[in-house]
Structures are given as structure tokens and as C-alpha cells.
Specification:
The protein folds into 2 domains: 3-79, Arc Repressor Mutant, subunit A, CATH 1.10.10.10; 98-189, Arc Repressor Mutant, subunit A (Orthogonal Bundle), CATH 1.10.10. It contains 9 helices and 5 strands; from the N terminus they run H-E-H-H-E-E-H-H-H-H-E-E-H-H. The strands form 2 sheets. Strands 1-3-2 form a 3-stranded antiparallel beta sheet. The model has no long low-confidence stretch (mean pLDDT 87). By secondary structure, the protein is an alpha+beta fold.
Length: 190
């Protein structure tokens, strides 16, 4: 199969699936090596980044997906229903941050870090599709482990959790002091 036909086949698969497709599945479908699929995707991505294109190729860890370019959302909304926007409160953002940086993580570990129960926050984040159950811890009671989803990556504009900002030890110490101060204030208010 010639190169342009291979790219057209990848485009057809991604368009039809609508969701992300693992590189291994693309390679198997096209009977190509994964390295070759990555090369083709790189050429396709460069082509889609031109101004006259309304779509872009999004790479997510070991998968890829066709998406609308963000600058065309305003015209897209005129045709499609307005997507539901979820409000991420401070509590949800704190919980999501812990999960993103510590994954896979249990509710108990999240609660130890936050100092409060996290059932509601975890349930909301699962409902929003930003986190999911990724397994069970091999410990008494076999607690659930949580991790981020591809929707999390899409929502925060990163290809992988390794692209999340790194926190310096100084910042971490500042955060710890702020959290301890907040706990003291909560105790004094009771």
C-alpha cells in the first residue's frame, strides 16, 4: 500500500471511530510496524496544522484521535448542541491533582493527603470522565485504585501525564505549610 493510501486509511479509521485508537490497533489493521504508523501520523499532524484545516490530530499516550481545532468551536456550536461544561471546584481540582500526580492511588491515600473524606469528589470526577478505576490494590479489602483518563489528557491539553508541570521541593513545602495552616483554621473554627 502506498504512503498516501496508508494515510488515507488511518484517517478513515480515526474519523469512523470518533474516539482515540491505539497505535498497535492501527498498525495491525494496516499490517505495518508501529514505528511506520508514528511516521505517517507525524506527516498527517503537520498537514492538519495548516491554517486551512478544521481538524487536528491529537496524540494521547499510545493512541491518537481526530478532533476539531479549538478555533472553530464557536461555529461548531451553532450546529451542534452546546457541550455540557462541568464546574471543577477547588475540592475537585485538589482531588484530581492528587490522582494525576500519585496515580494509581486509593481513596484512603487521597484522604490522607487532603485530610478529609473524598468520596463525593472521586464520584464526581468519575462521573465527569476525568478519572477511572484502574485496578485494585493488593492489600486487605482490595481497595480500588484510580487514575486519569484520556478525557483528562484532552481537557488539560497534554499528551501524557509526564507533561504535567513538575513541582519543585520549595513549592511542595509551601503547599504543605498552606495545607497545615488550613487544617489549623478548620480546627479553630469548630
Amino acid at each position: 500500500m502506498e504512503k498516501e493510501r496508508q494515510k488515507a486509511a488511518i484517517e478513515a479509521i480515526l474519523f469512523t471511530m470518533g474516539d482515540s485508537v491505539e497505535i498497535g490497533h492501527l498498525a495491525a489493521a494496516l499490517e505495518l510496524e508501529a514505528k511506520r504508523v508514528w511516521e505517517l501520523l507525524g506527516e498527517m499532524k503537520a498537514s492538519y496544522e495548516k491554517e486551512d484545516r478544521g481538524i487536528r490530530l491529537l496524540e494521547l499516550e499510545n493512541a491518537c484521535q481526530l478532533c476539531t481545532k479549538t478555533e472553530y468551536y464557536d461555529v461548531l456550536i451553532r450546529v451542534a448542541k452546546q457541550p455540557k461544561k462541568y464546574a471543577l471546584t477547588e475540592v475537585l481540582l485538589e482531588t484530581l491533582s492528587i490522582i494525576a500526580y500519585k496515580q494509581p492511588v486509593t481513596k484512603l491515600e487521597i484522604e490522607k493527603i487532603r485530610g478529609v473524606k473524598c468520596d463525593h469528589a472521586v464520584n464526581k470526577l468519575v462521573e465527569y470522565g476525568l478519572i477511572e478505576e484502574v485496578g485494585r490494590l493488593d492489600a486487605p479489602g482490595r481497595p480500588l485504585l484510580f487514575g486519569t483518563t484520556e478525557d483528562f489528557l484532552r481537557s488539560f491539553g497534554v499528551s501524557s501525564v509526564t507533561e504535567l508541570p513538575h513541582v519543585s521541593p520549595e513549592q511542595l513545602e509551601d503547599f504543605k505549610e498552606e495545607a497545615e495552616e488550613e487544617v489549623k483554621q478548620r480546627i479553630n473554627q469548630k
